[in-house]
Structures are given as structure tokens and as C-alpha cells.
């Protein structure tokens, strides 16, 4: 049975994605590496790469049992990538609302080269993570993310 206060616990890894809610566990084999390898050419994140990422992420979210989950509007994670994003975009806050995330995302898009130069080349996946979180908030009706 789904409860109205169902909190989604998620972890987005390079080689797999994990979601837990109401004792229900969903494990997906396609991780951030899958999205990156299908989106980013020559190690550069540009507008085209971001459009492709959004497409692949929407496919993952919409084609899986995720869209049937009854989420209360809150999601929690202890992913290191989420902590890095919070430091980069949200003054290291532990709670980020959908509105704040959208402002951060728009800033990221407007200043793409600035932000991609703020992280090491092998850390670019945190932007894929950012896009994934944004799409989750839209498609799964999440209003707030809490970092544990």
C-alpha cells in the first residue's frame, strides 16, 4: 500500500540507478555512464549534449516502473554527486526546492562553459546527475530534495 507521506530515496550511480519507496525497491541497470556515452561527444557538454541527455533520461524515467510510484513530493539521497551540486549551485544547502533547482539549472545552461570548467574532466558526470535530478523533479512530481 502506498502512503501519502511516501518519501523517495534514490541513488544515481555511474553504472546503475536505485530507487526505494514504501519498501519497494527499483534497480535500473542503465546509469549515468549510459546517458553520458549516448550524449557527450569528445568530452564536451554543450547544448546538444544536454538535449540528448534530457531525451535519454526521460526515456529511462518514463519507460520504467518509476512513473507509477506514489511520491509525496520529497526525495532524499546521500549521493556524493548531490553534495557536490549543492556546493556548486546552492551554497551547500541540505534541502533544495524544485524552484531553487530550476534557477540553478537555468544558471548552468546560461553559463555552461563556466560551470564545466569548475570541475575536473572526470567529474563532468555531476552535470548529468544534475539533469537527471531535474527531470526526476518534473516527471515524478518531486518538490524538494533533501541531502542526507
Write up this protein.
The chain has 148 residues and is of the alpha/beta class. The chain has one domain (8-147): Exopolyphosphatase. Domain 2 (Nucleotidyltransferase, domain 5), CATH 3.30.420. The protein is 45% helix and 18% strand. The protein has 6 helices and 6 strands. It has helices spanning 32-37, 47-63, 80-89, 98-110, 112-116, 125-139; strands at residues 8-12, 17-21, 24-28, 74-77, 95-97, 144-147. A 6-stranded mixed beta sheet has the order 3-2-1-4-6-5. Helix 2 crosses helix 6 (125-139), helix 3 crosses helix 6 and helix 4 packs across helix 6 (125-139). The longest helix has 17 residues, at 47-63. The protein is globular. The two termini are 25 Å apart.
Shape: globular
What do we call the CATH topology? Answer: Nucleotidyltransferase, domain 5
What top-tier CATH class fits best?
A: Alpha Beta
* CATH H level, superfamily name: Exopolyphosphatase. Domain 2
Strand order of the largest sheet: 3-2-1-4-6-5
Helical residue percent band: 40-55%
Number of domains: 1
Amino acid at each position: 500500500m502506498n502512503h501519502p507521506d511516501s518519501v523517495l530515496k534514490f541513488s544515481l550511480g555511474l553504472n546503475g540507478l536505485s530507487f526505494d519507496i514504501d519498501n519497494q525497491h527499483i534497480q535500473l541497470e542503465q546509469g549515468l555512464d549510459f546517458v553520458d556515452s549516448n550524449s557527450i561527444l569528445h568530452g564536451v557538454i554543450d547544448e546538444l549534449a544536454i538535449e540528448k541527455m534530457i531525451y535519454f533520461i526521460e526515456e529511462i524515467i518514463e519507460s520504467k516502473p518509476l512513473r507509477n510510484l506514489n511520491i509525496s513530493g520529497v526525495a532524499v539521497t546521500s549521493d556524493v554527486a548531490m553534495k557536490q551540486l549543492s556546493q556548486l549551485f546552492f551554497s551547500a544547502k541540505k534541502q533544495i526546492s524544485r524552484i531553487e533547482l530550476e534557477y540553478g539549472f537555468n544558471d548552468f545552461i546560461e553559463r555552461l562553459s563556466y560551470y564545466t570548467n569548475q570541475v575536473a574532466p572526470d567529474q563532468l558526470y555531476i552535470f548529468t546527475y544534475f539533469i537527471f535530478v531535474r527531470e526526476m523533479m518534473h516527471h515524478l512530481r518531486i518538490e524538494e530534495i533533501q541531502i542526507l
